[in-house]
Structure prediction request, 379 residues.
Amino acid sequence: MGSCFMKPFDVYPLFDIEIVKGEGCYTYDAQGNKYLDLYGGHAVISIGHTHPHYVQRVTEQLNKLGFYSNSVQNSLQVQLAEKLGKASGYEDYSLFMINTGAEANENALKLASFYNGKKRIVSFGKSFHGRTSAAVRVTDNPKIVAPVNSGMEVTFLPLNDIDAVKAELAKGDVSSVIIEGIQGVGGIRIPDDNFLKQLRRVCDETDTVLILDEIQSGYGRSGKFFAHQYAGIRPDMITVAKGIGNGFPIGAVLIAPKFKAVHGQLGTTFGGNHLACVAALAVLEVMEDEKLVENAAEVGEFLMTELKKISGIKEVRGRGLMIGIEFENSAADIRRRLLFDEKVFTGASGTNVIRLLPPLCLTKQQAELFLDHFKKVLA
Ligand code: PLP
Prediction:
């Protein structure tokens, strides 16, 4: 019998590039080519690749203690909750830590259902909330929902259609409404501020829990700490992941005071471990020191203004450094040429939208550099 090796399960279509190093808003491949990173590896790199403060904090903690279980005191969790409360304006909320975005939504949906005893969930067209059982069921993509996930009662409504929401919630059996601060995978679609305000009101009137998924749009990306803060509302729960750890896998749920914690009701082995807490603390420290939320607002505004001047684009949408560039036809070739000819990483939503999700430390000069490469490809 010939030799046989275990291989990675082949679920990802891969670009033939191996990234081996990162620094700030740049990454480097195995051949030493340098790439401008306008994607942050799926909106994960918030403070920049290998930020020295982050590397130092995580290294020091690793040399002390990487992990111990959630059965003992962990003052790092307390410090993180306090710091995140201050940074986000949610000091009266509690923090539950897990490891991924899907898990964050899974736990939020569960806690909502424990709270009001109801089962049905309302979600929105083009939503993406993750791939575990409840999270994938509230995701508007039947292709990634397996039969084993299909039992839950979920109703999908059009984004920004408040009358449709009112009609569903009036039936009295909806446990929670889950909505992204800005839809990412769905193509950078922003819920109207007025829609969010009315959604908040109707959830209150019908004892429905409002869950804001800020996994992609949160942590400063939109130019405010959370994208929903443009509407001035306060959700009952907010889910975060991606940028919270700058690459360290962390997810979390911010939970309003009305939810009472019950010992044993939620739990996780890895969530809130010592290394994760220090990575998340280092991220918040850098965000504060370098004013990255403000930077995302400024550089994002500049990028969007300049992008809107370029002809041949159908629409530019976004807030802060979460930007969608929609074309009439497929943008796959533009994205490919940006990557291989210009050495610029970007993301996609569907076929026609290019998604920009750079590290929040992107400078105006780097934004200008991106615009030069982009115009060259479009010319
Ligand atoms: N929610 C949103 C809005 C996301 O964009 C994602 C990931 O793309 C998720 C949830 C799922 O996060 P994870 O892949 O960490 O489970």
